[in-house]
Amino acid sequence: MNRKGYQYIVSFESALGDVPQLDVSGELLEGADAKVEVTSCDLNAHQNLRVEPTSTLPVEGFFYLVYGEEQTRLLNVDISAEELRRTILLDIDSIHSLVVNRDEDLNIGVKSWDIHLQAYDSPAESFFAENYLVTGGNAF
User: Fold this and answer.
1) What pLDDT digit, counting tens, does each position of 23-32 carry?
2) CB 67 within 8 A of CB 89
3) How crowded is the C-beta side of 3, counted as CA atoms within 13 Å?
4) Chain centroid offset of residue 87 CA
5) What is the pTM of this model?
6) For the chain (length 140 residues), average pLDDT per consecutive 10?
7) How far is residue 58's CA from residue 44's CA, in Å, rounded to a whole number?
8) How far, in Å, are 73, 87, 94, 112 from residue 90 at the CA level?
9) Each residue of 22-61: pLDDT tens digit?
10) Which secondary structure element, helix H or strand E, spans residue 102, and what is its range?
11) Do the Cβ atoms of 46 and 39 come closer than 8 Å?
12) Which of 100, 123, 130, 137 has a CA positioned 20 to 30 A from the CA of residue 22?
């Protein structure tokens, strides 16, 4: 929820099968910055990648992401959101557009990236992080 409005999260039981795409209309909203949007209607379209320390040592090294049968090149644990976005687009042929945001908690050494797939070959796959030469922590 932002400070000016509301966020609603709607989930469907996947065991019941596919449901029609959720559509919204903002016709009755008032205000210059009023908007309504659906950010994801697909399983795995929004994912979070985290690097967490397992000791008091800083997390260093490299990992790569596996997406279905494809994988990225080696990624530094300090990769920026823009670098991660570009690398995924270059290395994963089945992803055509995405948004990546990065967050970091310096107090506990956690780094995370929110990955939101926008255009991709169906169905969306889960990303898996392979800890390759990561010391002091894990990527998942």
Assistant:
1) 777 777 777 6
2) no
3) 0
4) 14
5) 0.68
6) 58 64 72 65 76 80 91 93 97 94 84 89 85 65
7) 30
8) 10, 5, 10, 21
9) 677 777 777 766 677 665 556 668 888 888 887 777 788 8
10) strand 95-105
11) yes
12) 100
How many Å apart are CA 116 and CA 98, to the nearest integer?
6
**Helix, coil or strand: residue 51:** strand
Residue 138 sits at φ, ψ, to 5 deg, of -135, 150
Helix (H) or strand (E) holding 84: helix 81-91
Residue 41 — φ and ψ, nearest 5°? Answer: -125, 15
Rounded Cα distance between 79 and 112, Å, is: 10
Closest CA to 64 of 91, 38, 25: 91
The CA distance from 127 to 130, in Å, is 10
H or E stretch covering 127: strand 127-135
Beta bridge partners of 95: 120
